[in-house]
Description:
The chain has 270 residues and is of the alpha+beta class. It contains 9 helices and 7 strands, in the order H-H-H-H-E-H-H-E-H-E-E-E-E-E-H-H. Strand 6 and strand 7 form a beta hairpin. Helix 1 runs antiparallel to helix 9, helix 2 runs antiparallel to helix 3 and helix 4 runs parallel beside helix 6. The two termini are 17 Å apart. The chain binds 2-acetamido-2-deoxy-beta-D-glucopyranose (3 copies).
Amino acid sequence: MRRRMHLAAAILCVALVLPLAAAAVGKATAAAPAAPSAPPNVTAAMAKGGCKAFAALIASSPDAASTYASAAGGGMTVFCPSDDAVAAFAPRYKNLTADGKASLLLFHAVPVYYSPGSLKSNNGVMNTLATDGAAKNYNFTLQNEGNVVTIKTGASGAVARVKATVLDADPVAVYAVDRVVQPVELFKPAPSPTPAPAPAPAADAPKAGKGAHARHRAAPVVADAPGPDADDAPPADQKKDSKKSSAAGVLRSRWFAAALAAVAVASTLA
Length: 270
Ligand SMILES: *[C@@H]1O[C@H](CO)[C@@H](O)[C@H](O)[C@H]1NC(C)=O
Ligand SMILES: *[C@@H]1O[C@H](CO)[C@@H](O)[C@H](O)[C@H]1NC(C)=O
Ligand SMILES: *[C@@H]1O[C@H](CO)[C@@H](O)[C@H](O)[C@H]1NC(C)=O
């Protein structure tokens, strides 16, 4: 009789604990965020769409590559300069520091998905992946002129025009542009309407005697530029994402604790 009671208790215990533990484990798995469908391979799409050189530059900058990869999941629009544009810009690009290069590359994407239609109806200042939220730097102005979408900055470089849709796969869009867009943080600002007394052309075309002076004037624009540290200041969306995933982590560990408690309770009952 006693033995039978023990056996019954043991069966009851197993019957109680197993479903409880299984339920807890099941819920823990359910609470974990569903694996997001893989975002499109943006650099591969760029390379196919006439921006092979720009894709290669991103691949060669670890900071830029990792930020592009993580931004793709949260919505992103890339304006990739054509191979011709990158080739024409190569001497100026080479002159940048590694930070400057990463900033320039990140400057060509915004952390929002714009379909071809919404791109045409969104005029104004846009933050980029290079923007440090607190400093509000590294922005450009998107403008529709007639049927053409243009990108301008405060730097003296020419306006870039959107030439083609390379990829439109919500939440990622890639458009090819005909020029490298120059952030005012890295390149000489456009001459202001009320020119300063000093003759500006010296910096662009240094003469033999004035070269050192011109270099001296031009250098700080690059050297002093507060290159945003991609690690220090991730775009807002990335911060949200990391908050989300740590919340999921907390949830997961709560369910694990609940499962342990259920097992503990069940065994004290037995
Ligand atoms: C994307 O494509 C490039 C080249 O096609 C490849 O080197 C890279 O590994 C791919 N990245 C991912 C995340 O699949
Ligand atoms: C590169 O930097 C040097 C030194 O600051 C300058 O003299 C030269 O003009 C720059 N070249 C280009 C293409 O910007
Ligand atoms: C855009 O960037 C410039 C230069 O860094 C800055 O002065 C300006 O406040 C920014 N504008 C906006 C709307 O963020």
